[in-house]
Amino acid sequence: MTGGDRPGRRGDRPRGTEGAPRKGASSGADRRAEPTERAPSRPPTIVELEINSLAAGGDGVARDPGGRVTFVPNTVPGDRVRVGLVKETKSFARGELVEVLAPSPSRVEPPCEYFRAGCGGCQWQHVARAAQLEAKQAIVANALRNIAGLAIERIADPAPPLGWRRRARFHVVGGRVGLYANASHRLIPLAHCPQLEPALEPAFKAVASVTPPDGELAFVRGHRGEIVVGLERSWRGAPALIGRAGIVGVIAGDDVHGETVIEIEPDLYGGPWDFAQASAAGNRALIAATQAALGPGPGRLLELYAGAGNFTRGFVAAGWDVTATDVEPPRKPIARARFISGAAQWVLGKLEGMFDAIVLDPPRTGAAEAIDGIVKISPKTIVYVSCDPATLARDVARLVTAGYRAERAWPFDLMPQTSHVEVVLRLTLETPAT
Q1: pLDDT tens readout for residues 387-405
Q2: Integer Cα distance of 177 and 201 in angstroms
């Protein structure tokens, strides 16, 4: 399902990017190495492999007899499989599953018929939940393995295995609503989606039944039950959706109908194109962990990449004097918090005075541009919330080099059946030697 990624804090309506297939994160080798040339008519090499682990992007990982890493989607650790190699380099290969010769004990029957048909909205419905959690724990541990002295807690699992999405995006092609098949632009039409909150399902069906315009389609449901819909293109049928299945507002292209900014959680407002954690239960756990890692106020707190104020609300309530920043302000101000609009590195260069702590929750690309400014401020405590362990490790390594100690990390599985994992990590400034 689209919308799992965190490209930024205010999710503008897509322009010119609709239709990009969502794939797992590629390895550095994938970006650097040149594939071996094949004649177009040559069939793929067939090999038998045993899957050893799951990669951050969701693929199974095996090694061929020569030790070369091979990535194979739709596999499970412990599977013995026959694979057709579709891309080969000296250091790695990518394959397509041809046959499961001996299934892993962790392989399960996917509960969704659309996943079985190749839908790319989830990556791991064929993997038992316990194995999913172990894989995410291993992904975090592997990414952070070079951070000396870091304690990594067991992964938390606060969201239900299905039915956790209060926010989602779909594609519309030829008036049909669905999701793309894995690594393709081929639409798989959906009559329902088991990842949606049950209360959001009627709104999905109401929109899908009236042939919406092609492009992206977004939903968000507030804590009081209001639902707002986003359509990429203008549509004269949009006003008729208001009042159906809890829908109170529709954004269709540049046209706005009804109430399009709702209270997603108490004092947290947004619309269908805005970022918000997809799982309400998962978000509660993430907020609690971030607050616990920071501790209570008083003190001066700088919050970078604050978005709609998801964490800001709790920090103010805990007694912190909060200055929150992001490229755009929240839809509605957070009481007793100051907000500065601008990119993180620009804001850091303009701030005066010291801060006792900094909390940052950057997009998937991380906070490389902000690290020097954070170090210059030299807060005693830094809490980093990340949705990509690889960029988290990169940024934390720079902070450690600058004199911080990475103490503890808390992984979270907020998006079951997918390869996404969230991490809260606390760093403290080392006492200078005397």
Answers
A1: 999 999 999 999 999 999 9
A2: 13
